[in-house]
Structures are given as C-alpha cells and as structure tokens.
Design goal:
The structure holds 3 protein chains of 3 kinds. Chain A is of the alpha/beta class. Chain A is 27% helix and 29% strand. In chain A, strands 9-8-7-10-6-1-4-5-11 form a 9-stranded mixed β-sheet, sandwiched between helices. In chain A, strands 2-3 form a two-stranded antiparallel ribbon. In chain A, strand 8 and strand 9 form a beta hairpin. In chain B, the strands form 6 sheets. In chain B, strands 1, 2, 8, 9, 10, 13, 19 and 20 form an 8-stranded mixed β-sheet that branches. Chain B has 3 domains: 5-68 and 118-206 and 307-383, FAD/NAD(P)-binding domain; 80-115 and 208-303, D-Amino Acid Oxidase, Chain A, domain 2; 422-537, Alpha-Beta Plaits (2-Layer Sandwich). By secondary structure, chain C is α/β, with parallel strands linked by helices. In chain C, helix 3 packs across helix 4 (96-109). Classes of the chains: A alpha/beta, B alpha+beta, C alpha/beta. At the A-C interface, helix 3, helix 4, strand 7, strand 9 and strand 12 of A face helix 4, strand 7, strand 9, strand 10 and strand 13 of C. Strand 12 of chain A pairs antiparallel with strand 10 (138-144) of chain C, so a sheet runs across the interface.
Chain lengths: 253, 551, 322
C-alpha cells in the first residue's frame, strides 16, 4: 500500500502565548515546535498498516524550512521518504491554502491511502484533510479510530458524539482523518535517526495564485469579562442561591 | 528485545556549549587533517538543543572567536554588546553603587546572550558538519572495563511508573567509543559516577555549588538601556550567605533577572527561591519590573568551587569538560567561554590520541597539559581561593577577592573549602517537626505579579515529562520520616526551586515524602544540597525536562 | 439571506440546530432574512417542528439517498440547495457530522468555511467571527475571504438554544435535489454505542472537579453524588490523580486534559496555574474553597468561601428538589 501521512509542525503544548506587535499572528521568536499530536497518531497508524500490508509510507508536509524537524522525526520513526512544500507563508496559512499546496504536490503520487490528523493544535480548523480529499478526488471519512484494509476497500470505525461509533466502508484510494490516542506512539531509535538523514525529502515549490479562504483580523489573549460573584450565607442559604443563579442566570442547569 | 548498539570513535555526552565545541573542533580537525574519517556522536537528554540550557548570560567571546572566527557571518545570536556595567550593594530599601567596577565584573567587549539560543545555533553548526546529534537520549550509565571508559548506556524508554515495560518499550542503547568526552553539566550524573568509581578527586578539594534562579521579563520601554549589565550584593542575603543578583538588558524591554545563592548557607530554613522574591521586592528592582510580565522561569546549579575543586579530567578512554568538571569563574560569573574552551581542547585531545592510536590516560593527559597552557588556567588559577574565602562570610570574602585581584591570586596557602551541604546547621532542639516541613525563614509576600510561589513559577519553565514513568529522584526516605524533620525541618521542600518535594501526611499521621517528579527542571540542587546525601538525581526518560526558550 | 442547516437523526432535531439559529439571528440583527434547511428521506415532522418556531422559511429537501448521512450525499444535496437559494451566509452547528462534510462542500463550491465559531462581531456582510486558536490559549477574530456564500460552523454551546426569538409559524417549501446514489462512495453501517474505554472529558457539558480540599479518596463520593445530581462528569486536579484517587484520564490541567464545558465546579481546588490552563475556558465556573485568597476565585463566575463538606451536601439537596 502506498500511504501518505500529512504532518504539521505546531508550537509545543508548553508554549506560552505571545503575540507579534500587530497582533495578527504569534511571536515566532523563542517558540519550540513539535509534531501535531493527532498527526503523530496518524503516522503510527500508517506505519502499522505498512507492517501489516507492505508498501511505503510517505510523509507530506507544508511549511517553512523549520518543519524539517517534524519531517525528520517522522522519517526517524520509520517513514520511507517525504514531500515538503516549502514556503515561509505556509507557516500561518489557512486550511485551504495548505490543502491546495499539498494536493498539488501529492496528486501525481497516486496514494492508496492518505492519513491526516483530525485537526491541528495551532489554528484548529479541522478542515485541511477533508479539503485535501476533495482536491485529490478521493472519498473520505473523519475522526477515525480503527482501519481495516480489505482488497481494494477499507472499513473504518468513525467516532460520533456521545459514545456512539459507526463502521463505514469505502473504496480505495481514500483519505481518513485520525483521532488522537488510538494507538501507542513508537520511539525513534538511534538507527532510525541516522537512517533518516539519508532518506529522500522532495522539496516542492508553493503553487502560485492560492487564495486564502479566511483572514485573521486580530489575535488576543482571552480575558474574563465577568466579575466574580461571591455568594455568602450559611451552607443551605448559599447552596440555594447558587443553584438559583445557575438555573436562572447562567442557565447551565 | 534486542538492545541497540552503536560504535563511534568519539562519543560526547551532553549537547551544551562544552559538548558542542568539542564536536565542532573534531569536525574542524577532521577536514583540516583529512585521513580516516572519525565518527562522532553527541547524546543530549533534552528534546531539542538548548532546551535545558540556562544562564544569565554575559558571554566572553574569546573562545567563540577561536572556534568559529566567522561567527557573525554564520548568524550567531550575539546581538547585544554590553554598554554599561553597574555593581550595587543593596540594603533593604536602598542601593549603593560601587564607584569603581571591580575588574572581574567589567564586561566591556562582552555580549548579553541567551544561552538557550546560543546552544541552538551551535547545534546547527555541529549538524551542518554532518555529526550525529541525538536529542532525547539520556546517558544513564558509564560503560567501563576495569578502569577504562568504553562508552555509555542510555536510559530505557517506555517503562511505566511501576517499572513495567509498556508496549512501546525500547531498551537503552550501548554506545561504545574510543574516547568519551563527558560534558554532562553541573553535577552531571555520569561525571558523578566517574568520581565515585575512579580516584579522580584524590588530592582535590570538595566541589562547591551555588543555585541560580532566573526569570525573563518583558517590561515597558524607556526604563533601562539595552546592553546594561547590573550585579548586586548584600540584601536580601545575610553576611553568611554567599550570592547576589544580576539584571541584564537584552533589549530595552526584555530583561534577564536572576539570583545566585551559594549552596552552603547554614540556615536550614533558608529558601533560595524566596530570596529571589525578596530581591524583586527591593524598590530599585520592583520599579524596573513593575507593570512588566514574567515570561519564563528556570533554575540551575553552578559549580563554584573553582580550580582546586576540579578533579582529574582525563582517564583511560575518557575526558571531562565544561561545568561537569567545574570550569567556571565564580568571580566573573562566567563559565560559557570556559566550557567552550575546555570542550574544544577535549576535542583536540581526543583527535590526537585516536590518531596516535593510544587513548590511555597517559596519552589523554595531554588534555590537562593543554588546559594548563591555555587561558583556562591563566584565568581560574588566580581566583582559586575566592569562593573558599567567602566561607568566612561576605566581608572576608570581598576583602579576599580584592586582595586576590591585586596580587593576581597570590596567597601563601590554598584556602580549604568544605562541601556546602555539610555547613547546614541543625535546627534548635524542639523546633523541628517530624511531620511538617518548617516554613522558610526568609519568606515574603507572594502577589503572583512580581513575586511568585514555586508552583506558579515552574509553570513558566515549560517543564514536561512523560507522566507514566518511574520517579527519577531516588531518595532513601527512611530519613524523611525520622530524623530529617527534627534536625533540619525537611529542607528539600525549601531548596528545590520547582516544588518537586512536599511533605504529606497519611491519614494516620505518618509523614511521607511526596515527589512531584514531573515538575523537575534538572537543576541538580537536591542532589547537591540534601544534608544526608540520600537524594540521587538520575535522568528521567529522554526528552523530558524544561523548555528554556530565550533563557 | 442566512441559511441555517439543521441537523437531525432519526427524526429528532439536534439541539445544536437551535443554537445555530440563535447565532444566525445575532448575525442577521433583524436585517437579513433567514431560512432553515432540513435534509433527509422523510423530513416532514422535523420541518413542521422548525416551521412552528417561526424563525424563517423552512426548506425541506427529501431524497431516499439522504436517509442515512453520508458526506457525499449531503454535500451533493446541500450544494444544489445553496446554488438555488443563493444565501450570503450558511450556518451549521459544529458537530462531528458537520466537520465530516462542510469542508468538502466548501471546497467544491470554492467557498470560505470558518469553523468552531464562538461569537460574531458586527452583523451582516461585514461581520467577523471569533474562534479559538492554539487550543484555546488565544482568541482569533476572523473574516471570510472571497465571494458568497460564506460557510460558518458554530461551536456547540456558544449560543443558547433558549434565546431563539420565535415568531408565528413559517412556511415550508420543498427544494428537490437530484442525487446520483451511485456516486455516494461511503457505505455507512448503523451506529452503535460502546462503553468508552477512555474518558473524554472534553465532551462533557458539566464537570465537577475535586482538588486537595477533598482530603481523602473516600470523600470523593460526596463530589460524585453532586455530579450525578447535576448530570456532570467527575474530574480532578493533578494531586488527586497523582495519589491514584482518580484515574489519570480524569485529570484537568497542563499535564492532563483541557476542557471548556458549560459548567465547571471546582471543589477544594486552589487554582494553581497548571490547573487553570486546563479549565479557564469553561463558560461558567463555580469555585468552592475554604481559602478566600485561593487563585481559583480569580477565574470563577460564582464563588463560595466555605467548607465544601457542608456546602456540597446542601447543594445536592437543592439540586434534588425540582
């Protein structure tokens, strides 16, 4: 099976938010990056599918030069080669532009299966994978927990709200967006890290004329606008008043 | 599962300024001399280069100039030249400026840098040379055959908190090398093992340490000029506590603020982190930081003992460089250039020894000879007694330091120091409690804007570890539930800057040491300062630890 | 005109549909007409329910290929509906289902799609949309680009279903769509429920969380009683999970989960920043703590300084009334 995994590089979980002067993006100095968490699970799933069914795993990423970090990490964990659409602008691009750039780079490869994370930990649009499916002309399903490959088709377990699930069958080639936590991530071994240096990373230029579908007008730190209402009185009195306010004011009960 | 092995010519443990300088020098010698290519590998426990690197820092660029003459063209993050030096003596409410900057604290020609950024850049230079730089691999044990160093074993990965292997388990890697250069930093766990297994410390004085706490602050503009360097002595430390503060202006709105305290204070109820808070509350400092924002926090120990505490740094198949050996100038508060220089000399020594086909201690002794002939000895020898002199108190120390400068270190005898944790005094009888940690004697108000509690502060160190792993702090806890309380009042709760240690009480009243290992910032203070010597810091699973961006 | 896409399963409207209608009303500010489209195989009762609310004309689109949701089927159908009605905005609830098809629809129509919206600034064609970024650490104000229609999905709970302004019953029109069932590539099987192995607190609408103030593992039962009375999930701050009193999946904070439920009740939690970063996005925060200076009160909407062992039982009593 020829499997593609789309991987995004995002600021680490521990990143303290700081904005650029114009408040239109983050301050990129002193940011540490890591692989987007759901993408890491997608990569692991792809490696397991290759172990089971043979083939190759190709990492695809769109972003500035620095995304080499996560590409190398994916190669070190066992991916066979990589595609990198390299452009500074892709560091803050929206899902449309990202999907279009990847589609342009990936179309000729004719992957049997494309896996992406269900959304990114930075902009979190939850759109890129699905748009990519449309551009590649393949069927898709989202928030996938399990994949079973049969001859030319797959059956996937999709997560629904509220503890419900659903199996869906579709023909290959297809694209799936993967839920976090569905497997255990393997470590990169020393040998894997050394081998990664020799694996191919094909650089692709950003296609011209791509239009973003949305524009960030401004970014801000979320502030609490409400004043804390302290409720006094004996335990029964305070309890009564709190429940009343939760029912009538906040309407959360 | 098969244990991975790797064989190289030179293994460098630690990817800080010493280790990376050694690697770079090896690459340079290789291209200079040609011949049989040397395989070099660097192992670093942090997830990425520089993540665990923290320092003030004012860099003396002498070693950098020698190692990478075209450092500017290569984009070294050395932007801020020092423009003004100030040294103050603080009292509780005011400050007295030293009319003359003591020569060791003069920084003309030096640069204010972020060690984290500098190390990241150095690592790029190393990787550009094709050297394997393995991040996320913690060196756990030294591999020895008799007295010869043959390499290092890294830590297992994928072990759960009960010691059971997880499905992702990977055993540690055995990396063997002809020469292993240990650059594992202050109180490095492998260097500590070497000192235990080999007679490297014979005839040397006990090592001495300090703890450095640091914050990065964003402040409103126009309060301080970029390139300003300030050092302080005095308040809030008592005369038997060694230390002081620093304020370095990277730009006019971005400051490094820090506090250094010798880990040899006698009062077991003293809390170094509280001293840092008190310092910030001094009117001079609070007016500088007010309305600003603390954006990063961290802490690390410093090796302060100086020349006479540096052990033998060469052995069969091994060398020690940088902070791990204790190469830091406590008077100048500088160690990065010494780490770089000893690193590059270690690289040279390893190269020559391997080419000569002899990596025995006798052959590697050339490293010591090179150090003795280099600016390292010229700088460290004259100030060899300074830290020990402060053992007599602040005034004695200052006086001695003054004399040392004037006489270029001449003194009839070498002053003797003792290991700092042995100076900790017992609490007066009846004041300690078996069960409850004593409050800090220097506690002050916490407002979470200027001053912080440790738990809030450590959040800004960005420290993260795989949660499901065994605790990396090995403690013989019988002491905690018996004598430590009455004798010292559980000082670990106070000297750890990251809220790792807490004394909890079981429902039946028995005291229990609670270890919040995940908060650890790898400063090594606990390994150094605990009075009974029952705490051993070992590296947690690779890639865990702080994220010292900009530090 | 603003077109709201209703979501239903087996003839039952998802409450998020009403929330989306409330959002549409905010966006319109009485200046743009609204229509609501419902898709399915036999959509009559759902259409009636929507029409009765009188929020705008109801568009019923029926086709047997729409009996079960598939992204291909719904995309084809909605595209035809949108092309025939030409709305400026298309609003959808940000449900798993919407996430599954809306981006395809947007891509196929080359239309902008803004997802997970928590607020609308301004109204009409110049409106901008608030949405979280960087896992809630930052709030973004975003403007769609390109030409109409502009698709917008509304975060569950961002608008309240009970704030929908109702009117007199609206009309129902039918828009028929031609769907080539053979072109539907997905073959879904019936949904089923599973006892989930992993707890997903990020889905919970209400959470009762315990901290050190709960003092012992046995006492957690008190909090669990209140959680049951409120229909809430139980969660905890780090020390509780470190002690093994609750499983790690119930931990909220920088080393656990980040949640933004409608209601978060913090019992005996001091509010260390490591915990706050995991829950300060909750819509309504209630804090009960003995210490009036506990930092948790800085982020709480409602606070009670007192003994949780007295207050929680009193709360349970109140909750069990009515």
């Amino acid at each position: 099976m020829k499997i593609a995994v789309c991987i995004k590089q995002v600021p680490t979980r521990e990143w303290q938010p700081r904005l650029n002067d114009a408040h239109t993006w983050i301050r990129e100095q002193d940011v540490s990056y890591e692989m987007n968490e759901p993408d890491a699970y997608a990569l692991e799933e792809a490696l397991r599918l290759r172990e089971k069914h043979g083939g190759e795993v190709v990492v695809c990423s769109a972003g500035p030069t620095r995304v080499q970090q996560v590409i190398r990490e994916a190669l070190a964990r066992g991916a066979d080669r990589a595609l990198h659409v390299e452009a500074d602008a892709l560091g803050s691009a929206d899902a449309f532009v990202t999907a279009e750039s990847l589609a342009a780079a990936m179309a000729d490869e004719r992957f049997d299966l494309v896996l992406t994370g269900l959304q990114s930990d930075d902009q979190g649009h939850a759109q890129m994978g699905v748009i990519l499916a449309e551009r590649l002309g393949v069927p898709h399903s989202t928030i996938i927990m399990e994949i079973k490959v049969e001859e030319g088709t797959i059956r996937v377990k999709r997560e629904l709200e509220g503890g419900w699930f659903q199996w869906i069958a579709m023909p290959l080639p297809a694209l799936l967006t993967i839920q976090s936590g569905i497997n255990q991530l393997r470590y990169a071994t020393l040998k894997g890290i050394m081998a990664a240096k020799k694996k191919e990373i094909r650089k692709v230029a950003l296609p011209g004329g791509l239009q973003p579908a949305q524009q960030i007008v401004s970014l801000s730190m979320p502030t609490r606008s409400k004043q804390t209402q302290m409720i006094a009185g004996s335990a029964p009195e305070a309890a009564r008043e709190l429940v009343r306010r939760l029912r009538e004011e906040a309407r959360v009960l | 599962m098969q244990r991975e092995t790797l064989e190289v010519d030179v293994l460098i443990v630690g990817g800080g300024p010493a280790g990376l300088s050694a690697a770079l020098r090896l690459a340079q010698l290789q291209s200079q001399h040609g011949g049989e290519p040397l395989s070099v590998a660097v192992v670093e426990k942090a997830r990425e280069a520089g993540a665990h690197s923290l320092s003030g820092a004012v860099l003396d660029p002498s070693a950098l100039r020698e190692l990478i003459p075209d450092f500017r063209e290569r984009g070294a993050p050395i932007a801020t030249e020092v423009h003004a030096d100030h040294v103050y003596f603080l009292t509780q409410h005011s400050k007295i400026e030293f009319p003359i900057i003591p020569p060791p604290l003069r920084n003309h020609g030096n640069y204010i840098v972020s060690l984290n950024q500098f190390v990241r850049w150095l690592a790029e230079q190393v990787e550009a040379q094709g050297i394997d730089f393995f991040t996320g691999f913690a060196a756990q044990d030294v591999l020895m055959e008799d007295a010869r160093i043959v390499g290092v074993r890294t830590g297992d990965r994928g072990v759960d908190k009960h010691g059971q292997q997880k499905p992702t388990f990977e055993p540690g890697v055995d990396i063997t090398a002809k020469v292993t250069i240990f650059c594992d930093g202050v109180r490095g766990n492998l260097t500590k093992e070497l000192l235990r297994r080999l007679p490297l410390a014979v005839g040397r004085q006990p090592q001495q340490f300090a703890i450095g706490l640091k914050e990065l602050w964003d402040i409103p503009p126009d309060r301080i000029a970029a390139g300003t360097v300030m050092h302080t002595l005095g308040y809030p430390l008592a005369s038997d506590e060694f230390g002081g503060a620093f304020i370095y202006a990277m730009t006019d709105r971005h400051l490094s603020v820090g506090f250094v305290v010798g880990l040899d204070y006698p009062d077991p109820q003293f809390d170094p982190h509280m001293a840092f808070n008190r310092f910030k509350q001094h009117p001079f400092v609070s007016s500088l930081l007010g309305d600003g924002q603390m954006v990063r926090y961290g802490a690390k120990a410093l090796p302060e003992g100086g020349w006479n505490t540096i052990p033998r740094t060469y052995m069969d198949g091994g060398l020690i460089a940088g902070d791990a050996g204790g190469f830091l100038n406590a008077m100048r508060l500088k160690g990065i250039h010494l780490a770089m220089r000893t690193g590059l000399l270690a690289g040279e020594s390893a190269f020559e020894a391997i080419r000569a086909g002899d990596t025995s201690a006798a052959s590697l002794k050339r490293y010591q000879d090179k150090i003795d002939a280099s600016p390292v000895r010229a700088e460290l020898y004259p100030v060899r007694n300074v830290h020990q002199a402060f053992g007599g108190g602040l005034w004695a120390g200052l006086a001695f330091a003054g004399v040392a400068v004037a006489t270029r270190g001449w003194w009839p005898v070498d002053l003797h120091g003792e290991a700092g944790h042995e100076r900790l005094r017992h609490l007066p009888p009846g004041t300690g409690s078996e069960v409850v940690a004593q409050p800090a004697s220097n506690a002050t108000t916490i407002d979470r804007r200027l001053t912080f509690d440790k738990l809030t502060n450590v959040h800004y160190a960005g420290t993260a570890h795989e949660e499901d792993q065994p605790s990396h702090l090995l403690v013989q806890t019988e002491v905690c539930s018996t004598i430590c309380g009455p004798e010292y009042g559980h000082p670990c709760v106070r000297f750890c800057p990251a809220n790792v240690y807490e004394i909890a009480r079981e429902s039946d009243g028995t005291p229990r040491l609670q270890i919040n290992a995940s908060n650890c910032v790898h400063c090594k203070t606990c390994d150094i300062m605990d009075p009974y010597g029952v705490i051993t810091w070992v590296p947690p699973e690779g890639a865990g630890g702080p994220q010292y961006n900009g530090m | 005109m603003i077109l709201v896409v209703a979501e239903q399963r087996d003839g039952r409207l998802n409450r998020a549909t009403w929330e989306t209608i409330a959002a549409a009303q905010a966006l319109s500010a009485n200046d743009m007409p609204m229509k609501v489209v419902a898709l399915g195989a036999s959509i009559g009762p759902v259409a009636q329910e929507l029409a009765a609310a009188g929020v705008g004309e109801v568009v019923a689109t029926e086709h047997e290929a729409l009996a079960t949701y598939t992204p291909d089927g719904f995309t084809m159908a909605l595209r035809r509906v949108i092309e025939s009605l030409t709305p400026t905005f298309v609003l959808l609830p940000h449900t798993y289902q919407t996430r599954d098809f809306a981006p395809v629809l947007a891509a196929r129509m080359r239309a902008s799609l803004i997802t997970d919206v928590t607020g609308i600034n301004g109204s009409g064609a110049s409106a901008t949309f608030a949405r979280p970024m960087f896992q809630g650490k930052l709030a973004a104000d975003v403007r769609p680009q390109g030409a109409a229609p502009f698709l917008v999905s509304i975060q569950i709970g961002a608008y309240r279903a009970d704030t929908v302004k109702k009117g007199s019953a609206a009309s129902i029109t039918s828009v028929s769509v031609d769907i080539d069932a053979a072109a539907i590539r997905q073959k879904p099987e019936p949904p089923f429920q599973e006892a989930k192995q992993a707890v997903d607190l990020s889905q919970a609408e209400r959470i009762v969380s315990v901290g050190r103030g709960i003092k012992s593992q046995e006492n957690i039962a008190i909090a669990e009683t209140m959680a049951r009375a409120m229909g809430a999930e139980i969660a905890a701050s780090r020390p509780i999970c470190d002690n093994g009193w609750l499983p790690m999946e119930r931990q909220i904070g920088s080393s656990g989960q980040t949640v933004a439920p409608k209601l978060y009740v913090a019992l005996g939690i001091s509010g260390a920043i490591q915990h706050l970063v995991g829950m300060k996005g909750a819509r309504t925060i209630v804090a009960i703590n003995k210490d009036a200076d506990a930092p948790i009160f800085e982020v709480a909407d409602y606070g009670i300084v007192g003994d949780l062992f007295e207050i929680v039982p009193a709360l349970v009593k109140e909750l069990e009334k009515a």
